[in-house]
Amino acid sequence: MPQDFNLPFVLSVAGAFLTSSVVAYVYVWPAVREMPRYEALRLLAAFHAFRFLGMNFLVSGFVSSELSSDFAYQVGWGDLIAAVLALVSMAALSWRWPIAVPIVWIFNIWGTMDLLNAYYMGVTRIGNPGLFGAGVYIPALYVPLLLVNHGLAFRILWRKRALEQPA
């Protein structure tokens, strides 16, 4: 564990995961599971269309000049790719493309792996959340919401094919 381990930040992230999970379980999942598969997936993908916010890690002054440029590039570009994949998923689902569900699988896998990679890099290479500057809210609040959202999307993707289209 890096020397700059920050317990308050870790507790903040854990609290965001717990709260996101509880809200998803109590409010979001009951509504989303009743929706037709394409509609539920489109709604869940819409939340990820805002992941272009990760590009702010590349903005001078938004983060500390001491933040690893390798970390900033991986986080920024990984999030931008996830945002584009989310938008493509939304289009594919809206227009009922035959490859819509595989596109959503690609988006969901990419998006999840990108977020887990960012956390891994943050813990093993950064350690000090103060280096995130104004972007500290992204890993402390937004990423837990996104990961829980990906979990909901995986549950919808694993549903039986009979639930794919509305009757």
UniProtKB/TrEMBL annotation:
UniProt entry tagged with the keyword Transmembrane: yes
Key words of the record: Membrane, Transmembrane, Transmembrane helix
Transmembrane segments: 6-28, 40-59, 71-93, 100-120, 140-158
Keyword match Membrane: yes
Protein name: Transmembrane protein
Source organism of the structure: Rhizobium freirei PRF 81
